[in-house]
Amino acid sequence: MLNGVVFAAAEEHNPIIPAWPDIIGSLICFIIILVFFWRLVLPRMRKLLDERAEAIEGNIAKADEAQHKAEALLEEYTAQLADARAEAAKIRETARTDGQQIVAEAKDNAAAEAARVTANAQAQIEAERQGALVSLRGEVGSLAIDLASGVVGEVLTDDKKAQAIVDRFLADLESSDARKAQEAGSSN
Predict the structure, then answer these.
(1) What is the CA radius of gyration of the chain?
(2) Which position among 1, 60, 94, 142 has the lowest Cβ density within 10 Å, counted as fewest Cβ atoms?
(3) With contact defined as beta carbons under 8 Å apart, do 166 and 140 qualify?
(4) CA angle 36-40-46, nearest 5°?
(5) Cβ neighbour number for residue 145 with a 10 Å cutoff
(6) How far apart are CA 58 and CA 115, in angstroms?
(7) Who has greater pLDDT, 188 or 169?
(8) How do residues 138-164 score in pLDDT, each as one tens digit?
(9) What is the spatial distance between Cα 75 and Cα 77, in angstroms, rounded to a whole number?
(10) CA-based angle 30:36:42, to the nearest 5?
(11) What local confidence, expressed as pLDDT, does residue 5 receive?
(12) Would the CA dihedral through 108, 114, 115, 116 be positive or negative?
């Protein structure tokens, strides 16, 4: 029995170590799966990964190119904007200068027109004044002759003599009015 126990213990199988037929079968399956992966799956994976890497690199290159184009367009836009602002400032300054020039011309024209209207008005006033003086001289002369005729008691018919008397009388009146105006002006 002891012999039987030792023999049974020698034939007993270690549960941690698999049996040889299991190891060989597992090894054959592993080699078949390894060859399958090595020949079919791995090249396809590499090809797929390479295509993805190329696509990513292409997209990165396109993005870089698009970024460079965008930067160039931004610089161009900024330059155009600066030019437009400078041109707008130039136009504003030209318009301001033109406006000032137009205002100055309008003022000059208005002043010239005012001077012309004033001169015309003064000439008209002077003409009316002269007409009034002539008319007044005639009326005052006839009144003075009539008055003198009434005082003297004779009719004064000599027109030249009568006209000379009237002119002297009016000149005396004008000089006395001028003196009164000067005295009034100097007292103020």
Answers:
(1) 66
(2) 1
(3) yes
(4) 130
(5) 20
(6) 83
(7) 169
(8) 777 777 777 766 766 656 666 676 677
(9) 5
(10) 115
(11) 44
(12) positive
